[in-house]
Amino acid sequence: MYIGNVSSLFEGGVDYCVHIAEKYGGAVRLHGPLGETVYVSDPRALYHMVVKDQHIFEEPSFFVMFNKLLFGEGLISTVGEQHRRQRKLLNPVFSTSNMRRLLSILHPISDRLTSTLVSKLPADGSHKEIDILPWISRCALDGVCQGILGYPSDTLSAAENDPYPEALRKIGPLIGKLMKVRPFAVIIMQHCSPYWAEKVLDLVTVPWLPTQFMADVREMRRTVETMDSASRKAFLEKKTSMEAKETPDPVDTACRDSDSMTSMMDIMLKANVVSSNTERLTDDELLGQMNVMVFAGLDTTTSVLARCIYLLAQHSGAQARLRSEIRNATKIIEEDGDMSSAELPYDVLMNLPFLDGVVKETLRLYPSLPLMSRVTSKATTLPLQFPTRSRSGGYTSTVAIPEGAYTIISILAANRHREMWGADANEWRPERWLSSSLTASSETQEANCSMDGEDVVSTSRSAPVPGVKDSTRFPGVYSNMMTFLGGSRSCIGFKFAEMELKQVIATLVMRLHFSLPTERNAQGYVKEIQWKLQAFHIPVVKPPAGDGVTPQVPLNVRLVKEDDFIC
Questions:
Q1: H helix count then E strand count, the chain
Q2: Could you give the 3-state DSSP secondary structure of residue 528?
Q3: What is the pLDDT of residues 260-305, one digit of tens each?
Q4: Which residues sit opposite 5 in a β-bridge?
Q5: Structure-derived torsion over alpha carbons of residues 407, 412, 418, 421, reported in degrees to the nearest 10
Q6: Can you tell me the distance from the alpha carbon of 366 to that of 536, in angstroms, rounded to the nearest whole number?
Q7: Which pTM value belongs to this model?
Q8: Which among 131, 177, 128 is positioned nearest to 546, based on CA atoms?
Q9: What is the number of other CB atoms lying within 10 angstroms of the CB of residue 249?
Q10: Angle between helices 283-314 and 212-244 (to 10 degrees)
Q11: Integer CA distances (angstroms), 225 to 164, 171, 220, 471, 481, in order
């Protein structure tokens, strides 16, 4: 059945994306600029798309090639054997032992963010309205620059005169503005030599073209060139430094603790050195991984962090409960009772139940990338867990998809599927995760497959597991949700992202209390935050109190008082 069109997914926002799946089922045919598009949120269909038949449901060529143009030969811009080889090297890099080491990098960054916000507050303890978004963005930027690249950005403390961090901040919004130009960029790359492609780029970025669109294209070119130059320099410095040291013992594993490895780049370079010649990545491939990781970790982390603080501001009871949980954990560890920071050890931080629930529930309801595209390499049929209405008016348990057809993986609709998550699937309720204690292995392993190719899941626990119904689950790598996808194209850095989210939130709520804006402007309006759905979730202030365009998250912030805890 044809319902609406693809552009409505962005115009209607989160509510529309969820509504059409709830009304018409887990596979809905939409009109799109590239022809018929199937909008998918059914768990069994998604299992086939991202795990069992992922070789049929490929990422569109314009997506892969545009990413290669921006970031180089990273995971999101490679396919086939090259992607498999990269994934094999990178999987151990994101081990739990490496995350434990990298947490120490995030401690001072989250402390600086908190101290910066504290310095802006009145001395009498009253609240002040602060736009937290730029400070959250700087924190996320320092986290990815220092944790992934080992690049000393320090944007929370320094003036904004470093072109590399500034370029990183610009790249996400520019991609959102230029999404429609991606297919044209790919056509040029496919049909022009590098020389003529460069000439075309020179032509369309001449400064005398006056439109805002062309100004955005010119800014994108400058931004990409700045990113490439700075990241290449950082990469070469790290590589030269490593080569100058004694050659590592080949018997040593790539992920063993080492004081000399202080960033993801250090770990990756060592992993590459001890790999066999056939599995080793080229310098361009390693550089591509760095660019992709930094980009993926910046705007997505900023979006989720801002949303999480906003939700805690909305739900004061949840904020107090979270703050109390963190204080109790800190008291056990710190004998001197110093509550000025929340430098909890990795295992304690990652296993605080309510903090875990807050982060998981925010990631479930508001995934950073709500929609993903795929195109079929051959005609196929998708099986459905829940029958949907067909063109004839009856119900069907399969959907035929022709060769070359586009499909949309609706992460949003899957994560809010009422049959899988319950009647309150659209509600932010961190408590839902307290009813089940998932082990680390069940959270991170992909959907298993029985001999007949159907999903299987352990049902040995007595407590209900969120996102699982009658042994059926979504094929995501993280807690039965699709936020980080599944299969070989899943987000490889989700452990780092989860750790960063938890560390920053834990540090902030220990010293600061957040609430929604209450002050009226000269016209008598109170600021109300609205989240627009573009490439990412973009927070703005709704008119008439705001312009509805400028990204911002204004909140009332004050120092924590004793009655902000639950006794």
A1: 20, 17
A2: coil
A3: 557 899 999 999 998 888 899 999 999 999 999 988 888 889 999 9
A4: 31
A5: 120
A6: 10
A7: 0.88
A8: 131
A9: 8
A10: 120
A11: 10, 11, 9, 49, 36
